[in-house]
Design brief:
single chain, mainly alpha, 0% strand
Length: 68
C-alpha cells in the first residue's frame, strides 16, 4: 500500500513537471515567434539548468560543485 502511495506521488510530481515544461515552451514561442524548434530546445535546456532563486540548489548547506 505504501508503495502505491509513493508511486502516485512520484507520478504526480512528474506530471506537474511536464505541465511546467509545456507552459515554458508556450511562453518561449510567444516571446520568440521566429524561433525554430532547435532554438526552443536550446532555450528549454538553458531553463532546466538555470534556477532563479535557487542557483545553489534547493536545500541549505554546502554548495555542490558536481554539476558546475
Amino acid at each position: 500500500m505504501a508503495n502505491s502511495v509513493a508511486a502516485r506521488k512520484l507520478r504526480l510530481a512528474l506530471d506537474i513537471y511536464e505541465v511546467g515544461e509545456q507552459m515554458q515552451r508556450m511562453r518561449l514561442r510567444r516571446e520568440r515567434p521566429d524561433a525554430d524548434v532547435v532554438d526552443i530546445e536550446v532555450a528549454i535546456d538553458a531553463w532546466r539548468m538555470t534556477r532563479p532563486g535557487a542557483e545553489a540548489g534547493d536545500s541549505a548547506g554546502r554548495t555542490s560543485t558536481r554539476f558546475m
